[in-house]
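Work Package 4 report. The design task specified in the project plan requires that, given a folded chain encoded as structure tokens, an amino acid be chosen for each position. We show below one input record used in the internal validation round.
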């Protein structure tokens, strides 16, 4: 009991009140004693603890044992168990949200008085400023014009299943959430929004959401928009689970992905959805979003920094030009820059928070923005869509003999963190595919580049890669070998019937038996008969030309003839 008494005193309760609470609750539980203090009304003299002591109580509850912590969250657990949806699902409130089912506010004193009343106190800036309707979304005019698919569907109350594909920070989740809020007011109750993430959800979560959607449709004719973020992370069987519920209209499916749907989503799902492509935001769009954050006194920078914030247009333009079209990166950088600038603001300790905010406005400088960004943000994924886009741009620039463009795309890949040996392997392929016989030494250059990159590694091998890229871009080009091997493989694959055997005169005859049955018979040894002609292809392909390249006259070393005449070794 002495231990419980010390804990109550450390929370700021008077000695007499703490002793009375322990006596009334049996003296075995500090939690029960605290509840008695906060809810007891029979003793008018027992005044509640002063407000400054409440944070101590909150810290105490966070540090309690597991058993006592379970007692605190009993009501929340009962609410979660009563809901058919997973904790990982978030349902936006409709026009007629359900009231809090808690019948006794006094029983939930741990949740309201002792915890922050603002649920959004620690939300990042980009989440607080997320547009609520499609009219507030910037940078995707090709999807949100008055005659677009989405606008027409909303106008006619016939929303189809869609897939939103685009880079991070372009508004996929924002558009998905804003769709429901953009219906005319009289149609709002017709749609309900449920959100899942493929990172944390499974088939069971999808099944629970679908079951609830079917019940609501039967009960109130309300349809459910099921939003699945990062849908490409679902495997084939998980993606299959969406097919029947999309087909029978149980849900309106909205998926979001940063990966190419052609490679990561199954064909049946693609056939049931319309793919909408989002573009990276332009710098001026990002600057407009940042200006919104500065001007919004309720949810903007003032909320983050705790004081008035002044941001020049130069700072907004700098962030907009260096975030690579990612609004989330830009807003995070602006928020960090504002907090950094606010940390320099020195205010007297005796001033209230309201007086401090009125006293001065902190200015966010360009140096604050540079410190927040650290370096230019580059949208690059070594295993994703941008990886293949950039290597394709590098290959095509060298094929077009544009060394400047080739070096630029090389720099983009290196700055994005690409493995240098991967680039070197692609250069070896290019040396044979696109340069080929026009400059046979190009292959030696590319192989030497790979070896040097292996020896040195980054960052020293960047110059070696650039030298090889420039050499291959400026070298003469020939795709004759590339086309020749392709044509030969096509003939082998598409030949009618069984491929012909090697003609007897081209077969080696190392034994007497093989010579007796005709192996090597009729073979003409070219060094001894330079003017003789013979066929080296199967009879059905005689005269067929795979390689389109000038034939060079064979020359042999007359000073060193072979030791024996007749057929040579292979």
């Amino acid at each position: 009991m002495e231990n419980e008494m010390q804990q109550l005193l450390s929370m700021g309760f008077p000695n007499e009140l703490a002793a009375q609470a322990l006596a009334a609750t049996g003296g075995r539980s500090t939690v029960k004693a605290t509840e008695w203090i906060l809810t007891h009304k029979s003793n008018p003299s027992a005044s509640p603890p002063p407000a400054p002591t409440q944070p101590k109580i909150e810290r105490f509850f966070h540090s309690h044992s597991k058993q006592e912590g379970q007692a605190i969250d009993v009501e929340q657990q009962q609410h979660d168990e009563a809901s058919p949806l997973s904790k990982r699902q978030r349902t936006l409130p409709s026009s007629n949200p359900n009231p809090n089912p808690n019948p006794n506010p006094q029983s939930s004193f741990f949740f309201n008085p002792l915890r922050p009343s603002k649920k959004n106190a620690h939300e990042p800036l980009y989440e607080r400023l997320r547009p609520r309707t499609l009219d507030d979304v910037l940078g995707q005019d090709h999807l949100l014009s008055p005659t677009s698919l989405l606008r027409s569907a909303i106008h006619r109350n016939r929303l189809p299943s869609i897939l939103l594909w685009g880079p991070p920070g372009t508004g996929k989740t924002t558009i998905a959430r804003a769709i429901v809020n953009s219906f005319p007011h009289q149609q709002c109750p017709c749609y309900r929004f449920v959100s899942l993430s493929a990172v944390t959800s499974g088939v069971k979560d999808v099944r629970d959401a679908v079951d609830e959607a079917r019940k609501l449709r039967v009960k109130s004719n309300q349809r459910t928009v099921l939003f699945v973020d990062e849908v490409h992370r679902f495997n084939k069987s998980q993606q299959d689970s969406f097919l029947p519920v999309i087909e029978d209209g149980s849900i309106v499916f909205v998926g979001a992905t940063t990966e190419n749907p052609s490679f990561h989503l199954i064909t049946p799902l693609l056939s049931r959805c319309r793919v909408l492509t989002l573009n990276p935001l332009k710098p001026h769009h990002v600057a407009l979003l940042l200006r919104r954050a500065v001007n919004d006194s309720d949810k903007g920078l003032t909320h983050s920094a705790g004081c008035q914030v002044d941001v020049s247009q130069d700072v907004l333009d700098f962030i907009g030009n260096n975030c690579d079209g990612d609004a989330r990166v830009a807003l995070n950088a602006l928020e960090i820059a504002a907090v950094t600038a606010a940390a320099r603001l020195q205010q007297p300790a005796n001033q209230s928070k309201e007086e401090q905010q009125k006293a001065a406005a902190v200015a966010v400088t360009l140096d604050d923005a540079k410190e927040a960004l650290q370096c230019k943000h580059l949208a690059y994924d070594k295993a994703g869509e941008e990886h293949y886009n950039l290597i394709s741009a590098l290959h095509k620039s060298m094929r077009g003999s544009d060394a400047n463009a080739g070096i630029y795309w090389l720099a983009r890949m290196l700055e994005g963190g690409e493995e240098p040996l991967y680039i070197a392997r692609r250069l070896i392929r290019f040396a044979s595919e696109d340069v080929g016989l026009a400059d046979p030494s190009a292959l030696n250059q590319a192989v030497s580049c790979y070896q040097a990159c292996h020896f040195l590694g980054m960052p020293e091998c960047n110059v070696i890669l650039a030298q090889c890229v420039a050499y291959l871009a400026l070298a003469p080009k020939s795709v004759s070998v590339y086309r020749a091997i392709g044509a030969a493989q096509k003939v082998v694959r598409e030949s009618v019937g069984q491929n012909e055997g090697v003609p007897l005169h081209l077969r080696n005859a190392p034994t007497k038996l093989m010579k007796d049955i005709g192996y090597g018979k009729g073979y003409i040894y070219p060094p001894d008969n330079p003017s003789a002609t013979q066929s080296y292809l199967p009879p059905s392909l005689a005269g067929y030309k795979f390689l389109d390249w000038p034939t060079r006259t064979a020359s042999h070393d007359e000073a060193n003839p072979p030791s024996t005449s007749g057929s040579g070794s292979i």
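Strands lie at 90-91, 162-165, 191-197, 223-229, 251-257, 274-277, 308-311, 361-364. Validation will be extended to a larger panel in the next phase.
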